[in-house]
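Reminder: ligand-aware prediction takes two inputs, not one.
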Amino acid sequence: MKKIIVTGALGQIGTELVRKLRLEYGKENVLATDIREESHDGPFEVLDVLDALKMYEVAKKFGADTMIHLAALLSATAEIKPILAWELNMGGLLNALEVSKELNMQLFNPSSIAVFGPSTPKIDTPQETLQRPTTMYGVNKVAGELLCDYYFGRYGVDARGVRFPGLISPGTPPGGGTTDYAVEIYHKAVNEGSYTSYIAEGTYMDMMYMPDALNAIIDLMEADPAKLTVRNAYNISAMSFDPSEIAAEIKKHIPDFEIKYDVDPVRQSIAESWPNSIDSTQAEIDWGFKPQYDLTTMTIDMLDKIGGNIKTRTTI
Ligand code: AKB
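Here is what comes back for the chain with 2-amino-3-ketobutyric acid:
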């Protein structure tokens, strides 16, 4: 990666990824794009990923050799707006693949644990297994994985991807995901001392702290292509917990913190259709995936960053 264009750069991943890429590759070598403009610190273009011609022109003018395509609707919003989800998630990716083919760019496409469904093995979900999702977002992500495989096999596009679990970060919040509760809980704990979870106790999902997700993107994109055995998307996960476990971890630092439940049937049924924990072995073998944060260390860092002055009662 030398000249990188990022779509959806103002979202949860994009905001932090652009900052990190600019530190590592130089500010002038990372072009942030999004459908809306905000104050920015480096090259920026307004780009609707459904506008294929503009995507091509912007990437060509920048001289990009890599595209990190993050613009998408997440799972819960996609259930409310399934047609828009299909159009944006599939149309945007197809444009990104076509532009990557034309300009000979590497392409990063984030997939998700949402590619799995109720018939998938729930524990240690293997890299290769049944993918019969019951959500529109999951359908988009499976089709997206297949498109990446297709463009790699048919045109030699250097497409790479991971199946992200829920991503947790203190900065720009996620929007419209099922795993978002695991971000909201920290903010509510610090600011209000309690949190009402829309996900039921006992519901396990894979999660990862943002610094590990950013390292995974960069490590995968820098990996020797000859070592990559997977072109659709690698399973990666750092931890798996249910709402009561994250609440218990927070309570170690904020003893009066309380969790309550008011389950949202839509997001609960999405969560129940996903695995409890996926197996990341293939990513470890092929490109050395190794997350640094677990629930304990992530909680200390999140509370520190959100609360600033929260005193921790544990040590790392
Ligand atoms: C969501 O909850 O929709 C996302 C995801 C797991 O892809 N965080």
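The chain has two domains: 4-165+209-235, 167-206+239-275+292-307. The longest helix spans residues 82-103. We will return to this case in the review session.
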